Amino acid sequence: MISSINSFAKSTEKPFFKVSPTVCITEAKQALCELNIQVSFILAPFKELCLEISNRPQYTQCYAQSGLIEERFKINTNQSLKVQLIDPLTNLIIKEQELSIASYEAKDYRIKRRFGWSL
Fold first, then answer.
1. Taking the CB of the first residue and of the last residue of the chain, which one, N or C, has fewer CB atoms within 10 A?
2. What is the pTM of this model?
3. CA nearest to 53, candidates 100, 98, 103
4. Cα separation of 22 and 1, whole Å?
């Protein structure tokens, strides 16, 4: 009974999937965020998976080889994106990672500090 539970748990495991970086920080005046993302994943236990970036159909690719797959993409965007691993047989999303954009605005003032050096 225990061995059948373990074999079932292994068959439903999700594949390894890592996306970095996941946040792009822009200045307040900057219109686009430039991301150099790296995606790493392993297909197991699936035979084929497709990598898709939302609103970027030109980056959609499907993979069937075994081992670690690493891809790099250079993306310019002004909105958040999702990187997804999709099973092409069922069209289900297996894993996904959101790439968010944060805006940073530098302060225009400095705090003056005085030290009373008097004789």
1. C
2. 0.69
3. 98
4. 41
